[in-house]
Amino acid sequence: MLISRLQDPSAIVLEALYSKPSAITPIMLSDSTTYISSLCASVSSQAKHKRAILRLHLSHLASHLWTIADPSIQDDIFHRILFPFLLFTKPRQKTAELVWDIITEHLSGTSSSNTLTWLSDCATLVKTQTIASDGTESADLMNQVNFDVSAKIAGV
C-alpha cells in the first residue's frame, strides 16, 4: 500500500511518505524489486518531470535507502533510476543538474561500491565543469560534460 504512494503526483503526499525515513525505508527494502519498479514508473511516467517530486524521491533514495541497501540493490537502483538522468540534454538540463547535485550531496565520499567510486569522480567532474564554464555556449558545455562523463564511465 505505501509503495503504491510513490506514484502519487502530489509533493505533499510524498513529503508525508518520506517524513519518517526510519519507518518507511525498511518497508521499501523488504520488497526492493517492487519498490524499484514502482519508483522507476513514477520517475519515468511524466514526460516533463516535476523537479520537486524527483528531488523528494531521489533525496530519500540517496540519503536513506542507499546506505543500507545491498550492493546488488544499489546497482539496480543506479542502472534503473539514476543512470537515465545523468547525461545533459537541452530539455533535461535542470533535471541532470538536480541528479548530479543529489549524487554530490548524498553519495560522494561513500565508497560502498565500485559504482560509487567512479560516480563520485564524475560528480566532481560535472561540478567543476559547470562552475568553471566561462560563457561557453550551453549546448557545447553540455556536450563536453556528457563526453567527459562517458569517458570516465568507460574508464578512458
What is the number of helical segments per DSSP (H or I, 4+ residues)?
8
Ends distance = 45 Å
- Radius of gyration over all CA atoms, rounded: 16 Å
Order of helices and strands: HHHHHHHH
Average pLDDT rating:
84
**What share of residues are in beta strands?**
under 5%
Low-confidence stretches: none
Oligomer: single chain
**Which secondary-structure class do the elements indicate?**
mainly alpha
Percent range of helical residues: over 70%
Q: What summary fits the major beta sheet?
A: none
- The domain tally reads 2
What is the tally of beta strands?
0
Shape category? globular
Structure overview:
The protein is mainly alpha-helical and 156 residues long. It folds into two domains: 1-85; 87-156, no CATH class. It has eight helices and no strands. It has helices at residues 11-18, 21-30, 32-44, 51-68, 71-82, 93-107, 114-131, 138-154. α1 (11-18) runs parallel beside α4 (51-68), α4 (51-68) packs parallel to α6 (93-107) and α7 packs antiparallel against α8 (138-154). It is globular, with a radius of gyration of 16 Å. The termini are far apart. The model has no long low-confidence stretch (mean pLDDT 84).
Topology:
Layout: H1 11-18, H2 21-30, H3 32-44, H4 51-68, H5 71-82, H6 93-107, H7 114-131, H8 138-154
Provide keyphrases for this structure.
71% helix, 8 helices, 156 residues, single chain, mainly alpha
